[in-house]
Design goal:
Distance between the termini: 18 Å
Number of strands: 22
Largest sheet: 7 strands, mixed
CATH architecture of the largest domain: 3-Layer(bba) Sandwich
CATH superfamily of the largest domain: FAD/NAD(P)-binding domain
Strand order of the largest sheet: 8-7-18-19-20-17-21
Radius of gyration: 24 Å
Strand content: 15-25%
Structural class: alpha+beta
CATH topology of the largest domain: FAD/NAD(P)-binding domain
Shape: globular
Number of domains: 3
Number of helices: 17
């Protein structure tokens, strides 16, 4: 060992466990990257340890059908600033791109129907576009219209509630089944019947607490100019963000170790990380940017309560099937990026993206790329199927929806087991308890999708937040 914490002449050592986007963002913050005023830890030795043989987690590219295709997420939401800001800090501002199409559809009544204007995360805010969409039955449309005349509720607003019942109480069950669940539930591969509004849709919880019409409460102000993009990506795909971030971290002196699983986390004055390569690493602070089950195993010897909270978090597994079709086998698709599938029909496909329409750089003469998403919480059928069976099932479900005339000429299957943490009611309270428990251990912080958002911007924010937490520890009297 190199001596007690804070020994004269020692620079603090920080270990980041997990090399996904949350862990890389934590390392970037610790290295002082970013805008002026970013705290960083001057002189700190920062090490990222990733069990996989590559960095980036779910962000990965693969060569497919003569082009590079994002294997996992292909865009991030633009309404949150963290991903755009990180791209700008890395000098990638001019590489930001938006989808060529913006419209999207939902399968309703056996056909694709365009999502109506004025949706707020799957909750309609205008009756006219909703009626014209044909998504709801006449009876369900009449039920939704009652939202504007139903009496205000009485009593104190809850601190949290499930998304589905909040929406159903004002707008009816079919709005939940055909709009809210495919959109909100689709983002999290879960069900809105148990999903925390405080965690995934705080505006809905706030509107419900104010009483009266949800549609009026959630209706956005009229735009004053050109609409802002909803999604952004990078030219060449999202993997470019990981590539440039890793390069920048290397230049900043951060050590990036892949194929290096952390097996145990011990405390011997300093933190000691027992790694798979047989070289223990000592650190004055640790950021755990790994899925909750792995984090639970690492903290269990130090705080059983924290381990229990982390271990209780449920996850959904998803599979993405990317398909290439000859142009003649795909009728002209309606303008847009793809469609969503409600869970009520029992389909395995939950969504389909028209990749070569969404991203023109993927378009090639003579073919069409589409991607099917399969699996959500409570539906693990895809886990028991081999790749050929999954491709066959995806094609069988896409054929009537898209009018396919032939099978794919190429297919690629990407499996993401335990990929989406489920934010059930009370999630944010449990996260606050996790973060407080981690902080009491001294120089330990949590990051990643298990906490305050599953999207790329949220994961970046969680990494940077965890980094600032350990910076505070290193600047406090316990270390200096």
């Amino acid at each position: 060992m190199s001596g007690p914490p804070g020994a004269a002449g020692d620079a603090p050592a920080v270990a980041v466990v997990g090399g996904g986007i949350a862990g890389l963002a934590a390392a970037w913050e610790l290295a002082g990257g970013g805008a002026p005023g970013t705290p960083g830890t001057p002189g700190a030795r920062v090490t990222v340890l990733e069990a996989d043989g590559r960095l980036g987690g779910k962000i990965e590219r693969r060569h497919f059908a003569g082009r590079h295709v994002d294997l996992g997420p292909d865009a991030f939401v633009a309404r949150r600033p963290e991903a755009v800001e990180l791209c700008q800090e890395l000098g990638l501002g001019d590489e930001l791109v938006t989808p060529a199409e913006t419209a999207a559809y939902v399968m309703a009544g056996g056909r694709l129907r365009r999502l109506p204007a004025g949706l707020a995360l799957g909750v309609p805010t205008r009756l006219g576009p909703l009626a014209r969409s044909g998504i709801l039955s006449p009876a369900a449309l009449a039920r939704a219209a009652l939202d504007v005349v139903l009496p205000r509720h009485a009593g104190a607003a809850p601190s949290d509630a499930a998304v589905g019942p909040l929406v159903a109480g004002r707008l009816g069950r079919q709005v939940v089944e055909r709009l809210a669940d495919p959109l909100v539930g689709g983002i999290h591969a879960g069900s809105v019947e148990e999903m925390s509004a405080a965690a995934v849709f705080p505006d809905l919880l706030r509107a419900a607490g104010q009483g009266g019409s949800l549609m009026r409460r959630l209706r956005p102000p009229a735009p004053s100019g050109a609409p802002a993009p909803v999604f952004r990506s990078l030219r060449g795909g999202l993997a470019a963000l990981v590539d440039h971030l890793a390069e920048a971290l290397g230049r900043a002196g951060v050590e990036l170790r892949t194929g290096c699983e952390v097996r145990r986390l011990e405390r011997r004055g300093r933190w000691v990380l027992d790694t798979a390569d047989g070289a223990p690493l000592e650190a004055d602070a640790v950021v755990l940017a790994v899925p909750a089950p792995r984090a639970a195993a690492l903290v269990a010897p130090h705080d059983a309560g924290l381990a229990e909270l982390l271990g209780a978090l449920s996850y959904a597994s998803v599979t993405l099937v990317t398909l290439r079709f000859a142009t003649g086998d795909v009728p002209p698709l309606p303008p847009g990026t793809g469609y969503l599938v409600p869970r009520t029909g029992g389909a395995m496909v939950t969504a389909c993206t028209w990749m070569s329409a969404k991203w023109p750089e993927l378009a090639r003469p003579g073919d069409v790329l589409v991607r099917a998403s399969l699996g959500r919480f409570g539906d693990d059928r895809a886990l028991a199927m081999d790749d050929d069976a999954l491709v066959g099932r995806a094609v069988a479900e896409l054929t009537p929806a898209l009018g396919l005339r032939g099978g794919p000429t190429d297919a690629m299957v990407a499996r993401f087991p335990l990929a989406f943490p489920q934010y059930t009611v009370g999630h944010l309270d449990r996260v606050a308890a996790m973060e407080q428990a981690a902080g009491r251990l001294g120089g330990l912080a949590l990051a990643g999708a298990a906490l305050r958002g599953v999207g790329i911007p949220a994961c970046i924010a969680s990494g940077r937040r965890a980094a600032r937490s350990v910076v505070g520890h290193l600047e406090g009297p316990g270390w200096r």
